[in-house]
């Protein structure tokens, strides 16, 4: 069922709660792919009812980012949600979500000034604002996020902890194309040549993973391996390559604890992210 108004979804959720049903929630910006599908299917397997929101959130885009061109495909999204077993697709308009005199911000002060937070000022404030709103509207028991945006999960978990929001935050592994490219709604921007070039993200991370498996623990050496591989691809421009503690997101000089190895790379004009977690 497709719903566009907050009052309508609230009324259905009230009935579900009266019947004692559990609610899973998958927040998305639409243009759904296998990664989203895996989140919806997990939510369906763990809850009585599942809500998927499809909303391209203006407050999480910077002035020179791709808000206006962000891909949209609501008909296909509805089909994927239906096939995956979602109960409701909530697709509000911008006006339904944001008042023209919105004056509240939601800002997590730790974990947000590194990685994508450092490169995209205000991004996580926008994510936290819209998710606070969706969490208040949908009041789910569990919410599901993809590990490709690992920092987002860390920030959302912190927000939920700090604000005592009674929702369990769960994550699903990155889903990849057969050739290794991490699934992303932004992959549709890539030309044929860029699509091929984009494989360098996973390739560079795989080289780093091998080196770590063989016992290398010096972050600089690992980072250099990634950077060198990325620099071999003429269409790639590095935004960041980091090795951080997977919980605090602080830099690790030596990989002596569970590490997150995240990268952000422009392929042409398209900014792609990828990562892996290394458990020692
Ligand atoms: O990961 C995304 O697609 C977005 O950041 C989210 C969580 C739907 C909030 O707009």
From TrEMBL:
Domain of life assignment? Bacteria
Which EC number(s) does the record attach to this protein? 6.3.2.1
Q: InterPro entries recorded for this chain? A: Cyt_trans-like (IPR004821), Pantoate_ligase (IPR003721), Pantoate_ligase_C (IPR042176), Rossmann-like_a/b/a_fold (IPR014729)
Tell me, in one coarse class, where this protein mainly resides. Answer: cytoplasm
Q: In which pathway does it act?
A: Cofactor biosynthesis; (R)-pantothenate biosynthesis; (R)-pantothenate from (R)-pantoate and beta-alanine: step 1/1
Q: Where does beta-alanine bind?
A: 60
Keywords, comma-separated and alphabetical? ATP-binding, Cytoplasm, Ligase, Nucleotide-binding, Pantothenate biosynthesis
Ligase found in the keyword field? yes
The residues annotated as the active site are 36
Which Pfam families does UniProt cross-reference here?
Pantoate_ligase
User: What is catalyzed by this enzyme?
Assistant: (R)-pantoate + beta-alanine + ATP = (R)-pantothenate + AMP + diphosphate + H(+)
Hydrolase is among the record's keywords: no
Residues given in the record as ATP binding sites: 29-36, 146-149, 175, 183-186
The residues the record assigns to binding (R)-pantoate are 60, 152
Family the entry assigns: Belongs to the pantothenate synthetase family.
Tell me what else is known.
The reaction proceeds by a bi uni uni bi ping pong mechanism.
Which NCBIfam families does UniProt cross-reference here? cyt_tran_rel, panC
Q: What does this protein do?
A: Catalyzes the condensation of pantoate with beta-alanine in an ATP-dependent reaction via a pantoyl-adenylate intermediate.
Designated name of the protein: Pantothenate synthetase
What is the originating organism of this protein? Clostridium weizhouense
Q: What is the lineage of its organism?
A: Bacteria, Bacillati, Bacillota, Clostridia, Eubacteriales
The gene for this chain is panC
């Amino acid at each position: 069922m497709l719903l566009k108004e907050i009052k309508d979804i609230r009324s259905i959720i009230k009935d579900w709660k009266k019947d004692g049903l559990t609610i899973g929630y998958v927040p998305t910006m639409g243009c759904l792919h296998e990664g989203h599908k895996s989140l919806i299917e997990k939510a369906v397997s763990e809850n009585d009812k599942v809500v998927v929101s499809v909303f391209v959130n203006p407050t999480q885009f910077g002035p020179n980012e791709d808000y206006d061109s962000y891909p949209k495909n609501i008909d296909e999204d509805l089909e994927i949600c239906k096939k995956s077993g979602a109960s409701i697709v909530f697709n509000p308009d911008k006006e339904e979500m944001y008042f023209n005199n919105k004056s509240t911000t939601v800002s997590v002060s730790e974990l947000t000034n590194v990685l994508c937070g450092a490169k995209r000022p205000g991004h996580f404030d926008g994510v936290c604002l819209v998710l606070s709103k969706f969490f208040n509207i949908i009041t789910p028991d569990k919410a599901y996020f993809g590990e490709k945006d690992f920092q987002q999960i860390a920030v959302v978990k912190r927000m939920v902890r700090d604000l005592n929001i009674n929702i369990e935050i769960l994550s699903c592994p990155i889903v990849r194309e057969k050739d290794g490219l991490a699934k992303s709604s932004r992959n549709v921007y890539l030309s044929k040549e860029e699509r091929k070039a984009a494989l360098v993200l996973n390739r560079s991370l795989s080289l780093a993973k091998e080196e770590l498996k063989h016992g290398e623990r010096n972050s600089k050496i690992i980072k250099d391996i990634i950077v060198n591989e990325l620099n071999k691809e003429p269409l790639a421009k590095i935004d960041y390559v980091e090795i951080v503690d997977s919980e605090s997101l602080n830099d690790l000089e030596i990989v002596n604890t569970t590490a997150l190895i995240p990268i952000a790379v422009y392929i042409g004009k398209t900014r792609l992210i990828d990562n892996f977690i290394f458990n020692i």
